[in-house]
Structure formats: structure tokens, C-alpha cells
Amino acid sequence: MTLVKRNSNLTNIPRLFDDFFVRDFFNQGNNDYSSSNSSMPSANIIETNSAFEVELAAPGMSKKDFQVELDNETLTISGERKIEKKMEEDAHFVRREYNFESFRRSFHLSKKVVDASKIEAKYKDGVLHILIPKKEEAKALPPRTIQIK
After folding, report:
1. Is 144 part of a structural domain of the chain?
2. Strand 74-83 relative to strand 99-108: parallel, antiparallel, unpaired?
């Protein structure tokens, strides 16, 4: 927390630059514009011959903080966590801001391509891994040589 002394004689002047040096103006595209500087977790999507793999970077969370749902052709990954800080007995609040983080990401999956009944998810080392198997008919066939007659 930063304490800022204000001159009470100047209370009518707009405080245009109050947090000018605190905000990150160059990274606004990745922030969810909350005051806690939390951001949307980054995702990698990898396609192999047999499946799609989604990796969602969310360090500091636990597997109970996530919810993964499939509704028709939309895979939705959401997560939330509330961080509470313990204080010493003789401490008192000058200012208290709760730290609550949440996110929600959705991805479109084609029923023609993926086998929705076999989707698996696991959380390990700060990364949520979701395996989305392809249907047999959607898997790429190996190249074959065609005989010329």
C-alpha cells in the first residue's frame, strides 16, 4: 500500500494523475481490468492425430478451484479462488481489499470431430491439462501410395 499526502487546500483540483504511475498502460490487452491486476489464464491448444490438448496456465490454484463443462459444442473452463490473509492479533486495517480471482474461457468443439464422452482433465504443476480425443473417423489417415494401372 502506498500512502499519499494530499494538500487539503487543493481539494477541488481534479486528481488526474493519482495512479498514473501505478497502472500498467502497456499490458491492458491481457488484463481483465480489475484493480487486483489479475489476468485471464493463457491457453495452449495442441492438435495431434488422435486428440486436441488444451493447456491452461493457472499457477497457485488447486484442482477444486476449476470447473470444466461441456454444453453441446461449447467447452467452458472456469475457475475462482479467494485469498484470505491472516493478520497478527494486534494489527488493524488501514485499508482492506479482498483478493478474489475468477475467470471463464470457452472453446467451440465440433461434435463431428471430438469424442465428448472421453474428455479428461487434470491439474499438475500450475497447468490445467484437458485431453479431448478425436472420433475415429476424424483422425488423419497415413499417406498411402496409389498404384497406377
Report:
1. no
2. antiparallel
- Which of 23-32, 103-112, 137-146 has the least mean pLDDT? 23-32
- State how far the Cα of 119 lies from the Cα of 133, in Å rounded to an integer: 6
How many Å apart are CA 35 and CA 18, to the nearest integer?
Answer: 14
| Beta-carbon count within 10 A of 23 CB | 13
Total tally of structural domains belonging to the chain: 1
- Kindly give the residue spans of alpha helices, DSSP state H, lying in the chain: none
Domain holding 106, by residue range, is 39-86+94-138
Task: Return the DSSP state at 92.
Answer: -
Q: Is residue 56 part of a domain?
A: yes
Write down the mean pLDDT value for the chain: 76
CATH number of domain containing 129: 2.60.40.790
- Which three-class secondary structure state does DSSP give residue 26? helix
Query: What pLDDT does residue 7 have?
Result: 54
In the chain, what's the furthest Cα-to-Cα distance?
A: 97
What integer pLDDT is reported at residue 16 of this predicted model? 47
pTM of the full predicted structure? 0.62
